[in-house]
Design the sequence.
C-alpha cells in the first residue's frame, strides 16, 4: 500500500458544489494525485475507508442519521477534519427548514404541497430511508472540526492552498483574498 498521505472526502446534506470546486483545481489535480492517495470519496466512488487518513474533507451539514454516522466515521478515521463550505460550517441553505417543525416539513413535502400527488396519503418511513433529524446541524455541533473553509463553495484556489498547507504540515493561514466573499 502507498505511504502517501491519504485524503477522504464526503458529501452529506450539500449539493456537491464544493466537490465540483475541488475538481476546478484543473491541471493541479495531477499534482494532487502525486501528493496524496484518495481514500473513501465520491471522487473515486470508494465506499469504505481502507486506511487511516491525514485529511477528511466534509461537504454539507447533518440532516439525517446517516450523515451523523458518516461524520463520526470520518472523525474516527481522519487526523484532521475540515468543514468545507457554508453547509458544513453553518448548515447552509438546508437550515431554512430549522424554523419549521419536522412534522410540518414532511406534511408539506408529501401531503399538502401544491404539486403533491399522494392518494395513499403516506409519508415514506421505510427502515432503509435515513431518519431525518429534528433540524439541520453544522458539522462542529456533532464532532470536533479542526479547520473551516468558508464559501459557497470555497474557490478552487482556496481548496488547493488549504490542501498544500495541511499536507506540508503547515498551519492553515490563508491570505484574506482567498477567504473573503463580497
Ligand atoms: S456550501 Fe454551497 S456549494 Fe457547498 S454544498 Fe453547500 S450549497 Fe453546495
Sequence:
Amino acid at each position: 500500500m502507498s505511504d502517501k498521505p491519504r485524503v477522504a472526502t464526503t458529501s452529506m446534506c450539500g449539493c456537491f458544489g464544493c466537490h465540483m470546486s475541488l475538481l476546478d483545481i484543473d491541471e493541479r489535480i495531477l499534482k494532487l494525485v502525486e501528493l496524496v492517495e484518495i481514500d473513501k470519496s465520491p471522487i473515486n466512488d470508494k465506499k469504505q475507508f481502507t486506511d487511516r487518513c491525514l485529511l477528511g474533507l466534509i461537504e454539507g451539514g447533518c440532516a439525517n442519521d446517516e450523515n451523523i454516522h458518516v461524520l463520526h466515521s470520518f472523525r474516527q478515521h481522519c487526523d484532521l477534519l475540515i468543514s468545507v463550505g457554508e453547509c458544513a460550517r453553518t448548515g447552509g441553505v438546508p437550515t431554512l427548514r430549522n424554523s419549521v417543525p419536522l412534522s410540518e416539513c414532511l406534511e408539506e413535502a408529501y401531503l399538502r404541497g401544491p404539486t403533491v400527488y399522494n392518494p395513499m396519503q403516506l409519508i415514506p418511513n421505510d427502515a432503509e430511508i435515513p431518519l431525518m433529524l429534528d433540524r439541520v446541524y453544522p458539522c462542529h455541533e456533532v464532532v470536533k472540526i479542526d479547520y473551516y473553509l468558508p464559501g459557497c463553495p470555497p474557490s478552487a484556489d482556496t481548496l488547493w492552498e488549504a490542501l498544500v498547507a495541511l499536507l506540508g504540515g503547515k498551519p492553515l493561514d490563508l491570505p484574506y483574498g482567498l477567504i473573503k466573499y463580497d
